[in-house]
Specification:
Strand content: under 5%
Oligomer: single chain
Distance between the termini: 68 Å
Order of helices and strands: HHHH
Radius of gyration: 26 Å
Mean pLDDT: 93
Helix content: 55-70%
Amino acid sequence: METMTLTIHVSKDTGAILEEKAKVQGKDVSEYVEDLIEKEIDKPKTLDEILAPVRESFAQSGMTEEELDDLIENERQAIWEEKHGRPEA
């Protein structure tokens, strides 16, 4: 695996905390920080992060929530009718 070298600057207090946490896990600071970074990269997205593009697109569309409700209801009804036939009047 190719690697990349990073240099970061943290306060002495943060450095001391990192050293202590690394020591508890039996690692040196660089291994501990590498694990933190990998965990952050690999963690699943939150629902809020997943929905952010949808919310942004909705905001840009200019559609109101009522219009969206109507659109969804009309589509739901059309699918039901397609599946079950049109209701008798």
